[in-house]
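User: I want to check something. If I give you two sequences, will you return the structure for each one separately, not as a complex?

Assistant: Yes, each is folded on its own. Here is the first sequence with its structure:
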Amino acid sequence: AAASDAAAEAPDASPAAAAGDGATVLVVDDEQIVRDVAHDVLESFGYSVLTADDGAPAVACYEEHRGEIDAVLLDLTMPRMDGVEACRKIRRLDPRARIILMTGYDEQRARQHFDGEGLAAFIQKPFNPAQLIEVLRRVLET
C-alpha cells in the first residue's frame, strides 16, 4: 500500500517547473526529432538543455560547459563519433560525469559496448516523457 500511496502523491509532491531545479542536461542524438522532443520535455520540467548532433560536438560542448552540465543523455549509435567514444572522451574530461545511455537496443546488449565505462543509467528508445524524467531524477539524486 505504501508504494501506491507514494505513486499517487508523486505528481503533487513537486510542481513541474521545480522538478529540474535548474539542472543542466546535454542531449546528444543525431536525430533532430529525438533532440527536439527531449529538449521540450526537459525544459517543461524545469531543466536547462544543451544539445549536440554527434559525439564530437557533444565532447566540445561538455568541455566548454564542464562546470554546468549535471547529466548527459547520450545516444549509442551516431554516424561520426558514436556514444561509446563520446562517453570515453567525456569521462576523460570529468570522471564523475553522469551519463545516461539512450538507444533502441535492449539494456544488456547496449551495456556490452560500454564495458567498464560506468554509465549512470540506461533508457531504451522510444521512451515517454515520464520515463525520461524518472531516469533523470534518479541519476541526479545520486
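And separately, the second sequence with its own structure:
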Amino acid sequence: MVSQPSNKPGPLKAISRKVRKALARPAVGQVDLGDLDRVRPIDENWGFTRGQPVDRYYIETFMATRASDIKGRVLEVQDNSYTLRYGGDKVTRSDILHKGTDNPAATIIADLTDADIIPSDTFDCVICTQTLHLIYDLRAALTTVYRILRPGGVLLATLPTVSRDTSEESFRDYWRLTSAACERLFEEHFTPGEIRATSYGNVYAATAFLHGLAVEDLEVEKLKVFDPKIEVLIGLQAIKNV
C-alpha cells in the first residue's frame, strides 16, 4: 500500500495559496530558469556542502515516523546513527553491518547477498537506508534480510527514485525503483499486508535535489507536497510474519 506521510499537507489541491501560486504555468518562452539555467549541478556534493540534502530530509522524515519500530536488537548498514537517534533507550543491542574491512565501527562484516555468518531470526529491526539500490542482486539481499529478522521484526528501508549516479570506485549504483516495483519485489518475501511504502517528493524537490541544493536553500512547505507522479524517495516498512 502506497501512502503519503501523516505530516504532509495532503494532495496537491490541499496546499497553501503561496504554493498554488508557485504551480502557475508561465507562458511559452517566458520561463525564467534563473540559477538553474546550467548543465552542471549547483553543488556536486548532493547539497552536503550547503546544508541538509533533500533526500536526507525525506529519509529523516520517514525514520521519525517509524521510530517506534527501532527497538530491541537492531542492525544498521555502515553506521548506527539512525539506530541511536531514533531508537534511543529502546535499543538493547546495536550492530553495524559493513561489506568490507575498512569500517572500524562495523560489528558484522558480511555481504547482504551472501551472509551465512549471520544467524537466522536474530534482529528485531534492520535499517537499510539508501543501500539496496547499490546491490545488483536485490532479491538475494532481501532474502537475507528476511531470514535474519526475528518473527515480528521490521525492515526499514529507503530507496531513491530520482537521483544522480552515486557510483564510486568501491561500489556501483544499479537501480531506481518506483513504489509499485518496491512493493512487488518485497512481496516475494513479506506478506503484502505487512508492507507499507511511503513516497516523498514533487518536481520542486526533484529539481532541487538534482542540482545539489540543500533544505536551507528551499521552502520546506513545498518539500512536503506529495506528487505521486514524481517520486524522489521511497520509504518502506516491512514486517516479518510471526
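Because they were folded independently, the notes below concern the second chain alone. Residues 58 and 175 are 19 Å apart (CA to CA). The first strand starts at residue 2 and ends at 3.
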